[in-house]
Amino acid sequence: MRNIVSLLLVVVLAISAAGQQAASPPQQLTIENIFAEGGLTGRAPETVKWSPDGTKVSFVQRDDSGEHGALWYVDATTGQKAVLVAEEKLATLAPPISKIKNEREKERIRRYSVASYEWTPDSKHLLFDSLGQLWYYSLATGTAVQITASPDPSSDPKFSFDGRQLAYIRKHNLFVRSIGGEDSEKQLTLNNANDEDLLNGEVDWVYAEELGVRSNFFWEPNGKHIAFLQMDEKPVPTYPLTDLLPTHPTVDPEKYPKAGDRNPVVRIGIVASSGGKTKWISLTNQQDIYIPRFGWLRDGWLYVQVLNRAQDKLDLYFVEASSGRSRKVLEESSPNWVEVNDNVTVLKSGDRFLWSSWRDGYTHLYLYSFNKANPLAGDAKLERQLESGDYEVFSADAVNESSGTVYFNANKGEARERQLYSVKLNGSEVTQITRQSGFHRVESDSFSDDATRYVDVFSDVMTPASMSLCAVGGECRKFWEPRSVAHYDLIPPKFLDFRADDGTVLHGILFLPPNAANASPGSVPLIMNPYGGPQAQAVLNEWYGAFFLFQELMAKRGFATLVVDNRGMGGRGQKFAAALRRHFGDVEFKDQLAALDQALTQYPIFDRNRLGWWGWSYGGYLTAFAMTHSDKFKTGVSVAPVTDWRDYDSIYTERYMGLPKDNGEGYRRSSPVNFAANLRGRMLLVHGTGDDNVHFQNSVQLVNALIEAGKQFDFMIYPGKTHGISGQAASTHLFHLIEDHFEKNLMPGRSEPH
Fold it and tell me: What proportions of the chain, in percent to the nearest 5, are helix, strand and coil?
């Protein structure tokens, strides 16, 4: 669930644009054109990457259908665009996602931005993943050579630093082969062919979703060894994802540890790229741990993070690869939980690294040093905190060691925005790099290797995202911008602030009908639409694509919608985030009601007897919670909700709620299932039967409780659909269903359902 923001970003990108469109007469905003292939603004570029030599930014650009496209590049010096791989070749080398039939695999690729191609270290070749088969493409000759031909797919390919070897995962094992030589592939790990429970270098569902892990093996810089994480899934319970569409249903078993269940057993292995026995690294006597990040300090030396099950203590170890000797060099702890991120950056000097922590109440960057000659000689030494203030650092994006400069993304000065900043390694000269008010999505892979140029994905609440190639301290050149949405006469929403009962400022955004200024008192129904859950922010000065456009459509239909970020959400520091610790539902709902009361006072046009609520995922949970804990709301729509936190995964749930055995009352009180008899108003419950994130089981349990309590409600299932209920047909159907539900219950008799 930590990736709901990524899910929303996927929706944004799915309806963003590839080219400009001339001005045209006003057009009607409809659910059909919002969720059409390409959406209102066109299809965004996919897989934006820098060539290792820093001369090119490449990206796949497809047409609105997604079926046709080419691999383009932008010259980093001139800003000129040209085709790198033409459409007819790309169709074979990187087929569109529509060619994938498995809904879970489609959502995995979208949610985790799985790349369809990689640059080779020499910047003269590309590696393509064509539905699990790997192709090596020469830019000079325009020819491709297939380098894997197994009936089983290969995944997560990685070149050694010199480009002479390629490693990848197949059937839960690590393989390696030379590039340009005669050697055939070598299998480095030797699972039994039928052993589905040991994952060598492969990432399981819960690590990908809740720890942000995207790969679990890494090359030693000299190419002699590979370090990998082995995950033993044997103790993890299995959830049956059942496809009910065939005459004879099939079951896809998903390893999924729920709150309190046993987790995968993990350990670090080191294996020679030439083959041989794996050396296993022992770091701690505890088995019930997480290893969220690891990598190479330099040749012969590893760093490994170890997170305890309670997630309130994160230890950093240095490991000598040849002997397996290790030392804990840094310990991070928190009275709440430790945030895991990618901000461990080992500097090229070989004796310092960047570390992030919210130990002072907000996430900031810290510089540590260690003994370069013998990293096990002592603890890492804190040199300095690089920057500070009441704001969050979201990523350490790049380091230019020649100038002693670190680049980072933060919401300094405005919690609803993101800007790129720089700071010197000596802690001086904190400087804002991007300037335009709004949301600048600049991340670690946005920078060239020399940290002199970057790609800026910019938007604001009324401006769909565009992409620019920027020089640090210099000009930016747009290389992609969306079609204009001006002819849809969108209504700018209002950013508002409210107060929680303890005085905490809560940010909100309000969508009002076009006639709101002249509306009579009590004439406008109001719908609450929070997300509400940890780590995320919903109230941002950012283009939110389909969700934003649906709010606009509802406003044109006469509804007002209020989105409020309650305490417990992200982007506002540790105290703000930890307010929901051990009691989901209570604080979030209390803050939403406080904001609602203030909005009703501030806007007399709202009808207190026609209040609605809807949300998705954690927002779906809050919808069910609200309608079983209040009689204020006449109706609500709960999409893909958690209804009992014992049903959700171990890492996410225990981070905030603790183990069920230690917080039984908190789990009981947080579950709408236990309060089904208190349902007020008409609720529509929606879920995909193939949801591998928030299982369909959640809605089934709530349905059963509502029936037992004698409560009437509406229920819609989407066969085979995963958490995002994606696809043009399903999305169009779902959002019409939501619109019709609010029309029927908040404006009865005004119109027939669509």
Answer: 20, 35, 45
